[in-house]
Amino acid sequence: MARYYVGIDIGTTSTKGALFDEYGCVIKKISKEYGIISLQNGFMEQNPDEIFDAVVYVLKELILNKENDIEFVSFSSMMHSIMAVDNHGYPLTNCIIWADNRSSSYVKSYKINGVGLKYYTKTGTPIHAMSPLYKLMWLRDNEKDVFDRAYKFISIKEYVLYKLFNEYVVDYSIASATGLFNIFDLKWDEEILSDIGIKIDKFSDTVETTFSLKKLKDEYKKFFNLNKNVHFVVGASDGCLANLGSGAIDNKTAAITIGTSGAVRVAFDRPYLDNDARIFCYYLYKNKYIIGGAINNGGIAYKWFKDTFADEEQHRAKDLNIDVYELLNEYVKNTPIGSNGVMFLPFLSGERSPYWNSNLKGTFLGIKTINNKKDFTRAIIEGICYSIRDVYEIIEEFGEINNVKANGGFVKSNIWIQILSDIIGTKIEITEDFDTPVIGAYILGLLSNKEISSIEDGIKFVKTTNKYNPNIQNKKIYDYLFSIYKEAINGLMPILEKL
Questions:
Q1: In a domain, 435, yes or no
Q2: 31 C-beta neighbours (distance < 10 Å), count
Q3: What is the average pLDDT value for the chain, to the nearest integer?
Q4: Burial of 318 (C-beta count, 10 Å sphere; 0-12/13-18/19+)
Q5: 216 partner at 20 to 30 Å CA-CA among 70, 174, 257, 392?
Q6: Residue 356: inside a domain, yes or no?
Q7: Beta strand pairing status for 280-285 and 288-295?
């Protein structure tokens, strides 16, 4: 009898899933997109039921005609989401996502008074508005009725699992990204909860990332046509599972992701923290912690440029029946290094690592009359890569990185990967499937199902395709330009904040 496995990633812009066979091959992929709600400046929310419906749709389509052969379903999910539910599990708020900046004033205060750094040394979650810790402070002071009525404060993954199983559980990985969870004790931090005025029973029970739920509600058993007790593995966060799904689980190998946002991450066997709180430290599995830094502005900056300035290219791409990014990537390819003197600081949505400053703004520098759209297009890509290097150099302070595994939507562009390799000066390997959190969820599911004995055993299911080596001459030019990039940020930061 055939055996099949499902990995699902609940992401920011879509839920993606894959069906794997017993040899680890992907035999089906399904995704479902959803939107972001932004009714006020700095507010970024999503409809939790829309996301739940997307998860149900993806799972239903993946297991269609294979229902009796499914061994497990394992989850990945975006970090830093928070929502309030009442005692019946009904949402009292939308899902407030990582990109929400409404709590910026609290972050600023906690940086100044030193309490934010104190919390960071216990939780590994940087002092930033993405953190549910500061979002809850905002709810406490600005939505008192909601705050007082809340039965639980939960992430989007917890909401999905509650709807399916009528249980409130959260894995150590998602919990470790809340700013409320002690990564040394693996418990909700009672001192932090007491300081902000929330009782521990307002949060879900914490469980290992390989923990599985088996008692699916009857209505969903019937809907999915499942006749046996399939294991639903709670899994981990998307960032941690992107490392696992790309094979970057030792301290010499970094995973670089550029999708909507971006990140640089390295795995260590114990928690590592930074005296200046420039990096995060999140839990993946026993003796496996992921340290790194995330940037807000990855592919979302390129998309903004496309949507705002590339109407002509979009019409031409439609006529040619190709993706508009193919035309834009040709602009990048045919523009010299340094974008003819144009530089882009990619802080369209503020910035996380290494500045953790929600009030930063984006800007183009060095504009002259000779510059054209092609220069600006390449400057966008170079600016995002400079931002990645900014984080990469901090991670290297914890040890030399010999290899980079790259994933995310940017790997569709050969020129973008080469520019990143030249800017960071390191060989880059591309994973065969850039939906690495889905692969990571699958591997964690195998571990939970005792089909592999360690995380390291799961690396055999990770396949790489192309390798890119840095051009040494290009690297020298980019070293000089990166020094200007750093100087520009330091000099312009007060002005960008005022703007």
A1: no
A2: 18
A3: 95
A4: exposed
A5: 174
A6: no
A7: antiparallel
DSSP code for 271:
-
Over residues 234-263, the mean pLDDT reads: 94
- The answer as to whether 429 is a domain residue is no
Using one digit for the tens of pLDDT, what is the confidence trace for 265-322?
999 999 999 999 999 999 999 999 999 999 989 999 999 999 999 999 999 999 999 9
β-bridge partners, 212: 233
16 Cβ contact partners less than 8 Å away, ≥ 6 residues apart: 8, 9, 29, 30, 31, 58, 435, 438
Residue with tokens 């190998």: 253
Q: Is 236 helix (H, G, I), strand (E, B) or coil?
A: strand
- What SS3 state is found at 272? coil
Residue ranges making up the domain that contains 146: 4-239
Q: How far apart are CA 426 and CA 472, in angstroms?
A: 10
| Structure tokens, 340 | 């003819």
CA pseudo-torsion sign 214, 217, 222, 223 = negative
User: 404: which residues sit within 8 A by CB, 6+ positions away?
Assistant: 253, 254, 255, 256, 421, 424, 426, 427, 428, 429
Q: What confidence tier does 438 reach under pLDDT thresholds 50, 70, 90?
A: very high
What value does the mean pLDDT take over residues 372-380? 98
Query: 170 forms bridges with which residues in the sheet?
Result: 206
Tell me how many degrees the CA angle 425-430-436 measures, rounded to the nearest 5: 120
Please state, in angstroms and rounded to a whole number, the distance separating the CA atoms of residues 455 and 285. Answer: 8
Question: Could you give the number of structural domains in the chain?
Answer: 1
Q: Coil, helix or strand for 234?
A: strand
Q: Does a structural domain hold residue 447?
A: no
pLDDT band at 349 (very low <50, low <70, confident <90, very high): confident
Q: Which of 468, 19, 14, 76 is nearest to 290 (CA)?
A: 76
How many whole angstroms separate alpha carbon 91 and alpha carbon 52? 12
Q: Compute the distance between CA of residue 437 and CA of residue 416 in angstroms, rounded to an integer.
A: 21
Give the model's pLDDT for residue 432.
Answer: 77
pLDDT at 434: 67
Region 320-345: what's the mean pLDDT?
97
CATH of the domain at 88: 3.30.420.40
- Quick check: 428 and 468 in contact, CB under 8 A? yes
Handedness of CA 381, 253, 79, 124 (dihedral sign): negative
Cα–Cα distances in Å, from 364 out to 125, 329, 391? Answer: 31, 19, 21
Q: For residue range 188-209, list pLDDT tens digits in order.
A: 999 999 999 999 999 999 999 9
